Amino acid sequence: IITAVAAFFRLYDLGMAALRADTILLWGLAERHVPPGLLFTQWFEVSGAAGQMPMPAFIMQFFLSLIGWQLTPFTLRLTFAVFGILTVPVAFFAGRRLGGPVFGLVFAALLAVNSFHIATSREAYFYSTMVFGNFLLFWASVILVEKLWKGEALKWQDLALLALGLFFCGYSQITGMISCGTAGLLAFGLTL
Predict the structure, then answer these.
(1) Nearby residues of 191 by Cβ (< 8 Å), 6 or more positions away
(2) For 11, which of 4, 34, 71, 114 is 20 to 30 Å away at the CA?
(3) pLDDT at 130
């Protein structure tokens, strides 16, 4: 139910708002049908040196080419709204790991109705995937601290979650590097 509420707030009238100046970059890439692979290999050439990371644009282009729908403000924003929706269950799992199932539900519910998260999830820009990565990184950090504190070995799934969080967080928007650095300092501190 919480994820359904999150989906409603992120999808309702998704294509109605005007595009902001920042989202024009992604509209232009989608309109030109830039192949997703070029977004990684020739990002600065195809983006006009946007000063952003290419991964969200890559995911958007891949998603648009996969669904094959006509480019509209709705379809442009849909990828980012989906990441906003997916962040809510990630918040639940991170919260449950940190403080139990009730805490996880409250944590996810608060994120589902958080106006800032709703707004960033409804924009075709680089923040939705970064916030998704931040929550993955938070979840992985809780696991890392708990297991290292107890002297337990990390499983490959723990490391995969950490890597996924670092990737989405650090390769979505440059400010995500702050979270990646913080997680690195945490891991380093726990090994001392």
Answers:
(1) 148
(2) 34
(3) 92
Instruction: Give the count of beta carbons closer than 10 Å to the beta carbon of residue 153.
Output: 7
48: tokens are 């006009």
Q: Could you tell me the mean pLDDT of each successive run of 10 residues in the chain, 192 residues long? A: 94 84 81 82 75 83 88 92 97 96 97 95 90 94 88 90 90 81 76 66
Cβ 111 vs Cβ 87: under 8 Å: yes
The reported pTM is 0.89
Handedness of CA 116, 140, 8, 75 (dihedral sign): positive
Query: Under 8 Å CB-to-CB from 104, ≥6 apart: which residues?
Result: 91, 92, 93, 94, 95, 96, 97, 98
CA dist 61 → 17, 32, 65, 119, 179 (Å):
21, 10, 6, 21, 26
Q: How far is CA 100 from the centre of its chain?
A: 24
* Beta-sheet strands, E only, within the chain: none
Residues 191/144, Cβ–Cβ less than 8 Å: no
Distance of CA 167 to the CA centre of its chain: 10
Distances, alpha carbon 144 to alpha carbons 11, 44, 137, 182, 186, in Å: 34, 36, 10, 13, 9
